[in-house]
Structures
1.
Amino acid sequence: MLFDPVRSLSKVRHEFGEHGGVNMSIETSTTFTVMAAEIMPEIFKGEKNPEQGGCFLYGRHFNPTVYVLGRYLAAIEGTESAYATSSGISAIACSIMQLCSPGDEIVASNAIYGGTFALFKQFFPLKTGIKVRFVDITNLDEVKGAMTENTRAIFTESISNPTMKIADISRLAAVAHQADAKLVVDNTFSPMILSPAQHGADIVIHSMTKFMGGGSDIIAGAVCASKEFIMELMDLHTGAMMLLGPTMDPRVAFDLSLRLPHLGLRMKEHSRRARFFADRLESFGLDVSYPGLKSHPQSTLLESMMNEGFGAGGLFAIDLGTADRAFEFMNDLQQHEGFGMLAVSLGYFDTLMSCSASSTSSELSDDELREAGIAPGLVRVSLGYTGTLEDRWDQFERALKRVKLI
Ligand SMILES: *Cc1c(COP(=O)(O)O)cnc(C)c1O
């Protein structure tokens, strides 16, 4: 039986509000009372946390409201446990720092979010002594060749930013596990669509800032993993999440908890529209990259992994040749057509577009951009679902004609 994240989420026990409200109450306290003095030492020994008997201690540790959001996240990804963080990048940083000590290594995809790239390329080696080897994650021999006895993790995005490369999660998991390392997958581009843990990933990360939040109004992240790993992250004396402190605020957790029930519906509509656009663009002979297209080199791989009914995602990329043409096209769409916005980020209800090489991937050198396959004229489009699909396509087509791309 295939994994169904919507069904899985629907099975999470409903949390009523204090007065029987249909929504849970927000627990805003930063500290929690114990019923007897003897319980306090037990909590500090790590013997009485929420997973073991429901004791809460302090807001930077577990909070009841954030804890409920964690249960939703775990259900969506089909992991034993999960917890939310104040940003996607802190979820990544804490997870890697928990797995590695100075001298340890990770093998990372070279086609990843620019901020993660900067964290791995500059910050980790200089500040923590964690070494990162970058590879083409679609080349398994290269991945295997980069593994050493010090490798603690393989890190990849499920669908890569912005090149739309697909990670072969089960094979990567096998490579990682053979070396006694963990597979860490950033699933920000494909919530609901892909469930990396179902294919062997050990730790699944989200930037909830994107599709999960859906409103481009909240910076947030998540780590979905085994109970053991979440406990490690939250260990009072040794946990990266506890000691570096990027736990989520309960008000934010509450807000996000209201958005996850319709995440599946939103992903379906993002995907339906992106598929329509990608088909049309391809029929005009444009260089479009969308993992749902048969022409995508890894469409079969994606099909073999994806959950049923959520499509292939809301993002596509078109290579318009030069940065100038990309700018002209995006300017026309925004200024002339009122179609979407020139902005970084993704997963918003309206369309967001940016030229990756000179924006979100500008951390990469020219050589690194070439290696990652990020062309100067590559426009990344995160297609929204406002307005009608027909009107939106007409706007896009008119802009293409106006700048003489078709
Ligand atoms: C945005 C993004 C991040 C970083 O998330 P923040 O919430 O901005 O910290 C990490 N990975 C991917 C794929 C992203 O798109």
2.
Amino acid sequence: MCGLLFFGGNVNIDCLRHWSFATHKKSGTIFRKKFWTTRSNRVVFALLGQEPDNEEAWKTSHETRKPSEQQGNGDIIQEDMDSLINELSQRFEWPKQDPSAKKQASVDPILFHEPGFLKSHVYEDFIKENEQARKRSQVELSMDSDTFMRVFEEARKGWLSCPQCKGLAPPEEIEKWGWCSYCHAELDLKKSPADILYPRLEEEEEEQQKKKEKSNNKKESLQSSSKRVAVGQRAWNISCSQRALQTINPIRQLVQGMAVKPNPDKKLIPLSIGDPAAFGNLKVPREALKALSKVLTEDSAHGYSNSLGNELARSTIASKFSSRHHAVSKDEVILTCGTSGALEMVFNALCNPGDNVLVPRPGFPLFRTLLDNLGVEVRYYDLDPHRQWQIRLEQLPKLVDSRTAALVVNNPSNPCGSVFSYSHMMSIIEMAQRLCIPIVADEVYADMTFSGYQFFSFASLSEYVPILSVGSVSKMFVAPGWRLGWVVIHDRQGLLEKGNVIQGLQQLSMRMLVPSSPFQQILPTLFSDACKSDFRALMETLEDQAMFTVDSLSKIKGLSCPSPPQGSMYCMVQVDSQAMGFQDDKEFASQLLAEESVLVLPGQPCFQSPDFFRVVYCAPKAVLHEAFSRIRQFCDRHHKEKVF
Ligand SMILES: *Cc1c(COP(=O)(O)O)cnc(C)c1O
């Protein structure tokens, strides 16, 4: 398999970071077809190109091109192309004159070096990624990256850096052209004081040194390069990946690691589990179960499905998430392993390591778990407990920077139980548009609202901002064990398409071939009229239990619900832990478990939200009744103890 080819004299190296395609305007289409395959870790990487040979032509090619277009500026010379193909053919025995056969040829990564300008920091990112790819695939680079870096270092000695964009260029070039070839800033070597155009090498070396020291401290650095060893010299050296060790689910960890045990004299009531099926009182729609048992007996139902998912199932989701203003096509739907799988896929497609994503606080902890795993920084924005948990929008501009990849919103909310109003959603979308960030909308509780509150999908309201909406049958249809979810792509302006995000999502879908294909086939039934009444009944039950929860808990001294639930299955309860002699919400929750065998999730460790705890009100009313009366006794008792 071959990978990517980059052409053009000054192909903007930024595109490498996204493993995407960048080709010369004229030749682009040709190469796109010839070398179209990016699924492999193996990368053929070529920078070729030819600067136009007179100043006029050079200037024109620069001036006609916006810096943001990220295109090559040079003309591809056919001889260059031919010699590259020749070289590839010789090294890797690609049949000549048969472009289609190239797809099957197995090739080691190879780097061709263009002695033009290179943005060094980006380049190093590429090298790092390439190192990882090399490690995984255990192949040797024909020109390995160490050699490449040596050549590159040698070549750029004495180069100068543009003060605006940090792009590096040889002084002769700058002198000749008078501007930066990356960002087109005017640069005048003679006029500019030395400190404007400064050689970056030493500074960078220092930085590199520091980085190296840091990573040396880690046991297994992701960047460490592999070395050839003789067979006899290999020794056992198995160690867990950093990625795995930085992947932590706070809820699971808290629950599994809780030091205290429930009171053995009282039956455990877990109001902690966000699983509507946990107590058996809420049920999967009957018709869906019938359809499932029928499908399971069919011989034809058990093969792989298309990696994007069964077509009929995708059409169902597409029409469900189409709105008056925008029709979704089935090709904009990808079926996933639950909402969790959908979130992972979306983050994976949007973010590189070192990017950051804005995430709600209080919020569903899986966002963080997935982002940590991908090496993406989590930046929290706050929800306001006294204004129906609306987003504190004024915080967002302070949180974004050039590496902000997405804004995550969750509506209706877990753990808050809130449902955003139409006007609040419009403000969120406006803000995202101002900041130019795509929205990842966790809409796993779509339509799960109580009377008086309406669910709007972000996609139906956003004309400009791209929305990746995720959801599943887990909560709506009480079937989290089915692991049946989806990503719906709303890209009305083609912004995701332009950045190859859709292609990336499609490629990611090919990793696992989930969800299980018989279950996919139930989606049309679930969203048909046959299941509507079951859904209504579910929501009536949940609403009734939500109101009962708020009524019962807000009467208890020390507890309050500043913004009662409007949907989903949760209620955030504020707790004055100190007034009862507890240090914080975590101690309150563990003591409640120890004395009353009622488990609620403390806000600080689970949702980054101190002085609250989350209650799931899915349990049958009688069970809720028992739990709340135990909580009441517990709170009363501890208020008294505190006083004495
Ligand atoms: C439950 C939940 C999920 C996970 O859904 P699955 O379909 O079980 O993966 C994702 N996001 C939120 C907000 C949830 O509450």
